[in-house]
Every structure is written in structure tokens, then in C-alpha cells.
User: What shape does this take?
Amino acid sequence: MSPTSGRPAGPPSDLRPALRSGPGRLLVAVYGVFAISASARAGVQIVTSFSVAPLAYLLSALAAAVYVVATVALVRSSERSRRVALVSVTTELVGVLAVGALSVGDPQAFPDETVWSGFGAGYGYVPLVLPVLGLWWLCSQRPRRPV
Assistant: This one.
């Protein structure tokens, strides 16, 4: 028993498999690249030609924010950051599916491409595959509760 909490003594609860180790390193790197590229693209689009496609450019900015949050959360590897990563990667998947469907169904609403338009076609469909891999990695690295 821990003298201060009255709970059984054991390893600290924040010792978990690092989300950024092994294949997670590649995942973090890809998220980092997408965070930077989506942020730069959205920034340029918003500053130079926002009136051309405001919805598309705001969605690019949203995608950039999601990639930044996911990258930071994957790097931190705490229980709280794991939950933040799950929410952000799930948001990413919903976003790429919704924006992809909207951009295919109503191309006039998206006169310019976003990261998620066409299900990420402009980025080799990586935006469609990345959240699936991210969710798989987060679930496969979930800490196991002792029995």
C-alpha cells in the first residue's frame, strides 16, 4: 500500500507504451509533416485568395489544426494526451469522409482543393489512410489493465 494514497503500491500510472516508439515514430513524423504542410497551405490560401473559396480554405485550416493537435498528443504519450489523440484522429477521419463526400457530390462548393477534398486525392489519399492507421496504432498501444 502506498503510504500517501492508501492504494496498492506499484508502478506510476503514467508508465505506458510510448505512442511515439516503433512504428509510432513514422506515424508521428507523417502527422508532423501534414501539420506543417496543411498549416502553410491554409495560411497562404486564406491570406491570398480567401474570397475564391472561403469554405474550402476554412476547412483546410480546420484540417491543419486537427493535424497539429494529433501530432502533439501522439508525442506526449500520457493518458490524457492519448484521449486527445483519439478525439483528434477520430475528428480527422470524420472530416476527411465528410469533406470528401461533399467535395465529390458538390464540386462547385469546393472550387479549390483542400487537404480533405476528394478524400485526400491531392495528397495521394494519405489523409484518408492516416486516421485509420492512427486509430489502429492508438488502440493497439492501449495500456493493459492488470487483472
The helical segments are 23-49, 54-76, 79-105, 126-140. The two ends are 17 Å apart (CA to CA).
